[in-house]
Amino acid sequence: MAVRYQNRSHAGRILANHIRDSKCHCQSNSIVLGMPRGGVPVAYEVALELQLPFDVMLVKKIGAPEQPELAIGAVAGDNLTILDKSLIKSVGLSNHAIEILIDTKRHELNLQRLRYELDRPHPDLYKQDVILVDDGLATGTTMVAAIRAARSSRPNRIILAVPVAPPDTIKKINPMVDFIICPLQPENFHSVSEFYDNFPQTSDDEVKQILSHAG
């Protein structure tokens, strides 16, 4: 197995092969959702290879003010808000503070929709097999928020598909999803970029172009 990917498109094709060869048995009631921005070109290749519908998973993690990596909730499409009440209680946030955080993240999400010129509704995930794709995971906190958002739509299954992630992150996320596809799980992990030959920042324009092809 190759220990590096040429670029995000190559990673998407490799990932699609692993999904095809896995036991997750993705059927026609599946949809591939890419995490912006870097996950979108990967997810697009997965969808092309597997001949499945494709869209973007717009989600913003709500981090605790003093611990931004601690996801206490998330906002997603169609005015969906998910809150972890036990975590919120443990960090001692007031209702007013939570409302401010939600409004801030909702504003960021709306700006993202405008940048991508998305005038269609969020895809219906009810009873679908949802394949969540990113270009790799480090801590996985934003993906956790995406999983929570997707789960609230009552899909049939949630399948996480990423080219690379450290084993600890995979172990943390494993109970939250129904299936994980991750070809590279290196013990010696520093960043996602080290497993790509070519890993430039994915621009908003590139995301818009991919979404226009998919639409």
TrEMBL record:
Keywords linked to the UniProt accession: Transferase
CDD domains, per database record: PRTases_typeI
Database matches in InterPro entries: PRTase-like, PRTase_dom
GO function terms (MF aspect): transferase activity
Domain Phosphoribosyltransferase: 11-195
Stored Pfam families: Pribosyltran (PF00156)
Organism: Poriferisphaera corsica
Protein name (Swiss-Prot/TrEMBL): Phosphoribosyl transferase
The organism's place on the tree of life at top rank: Bacteria
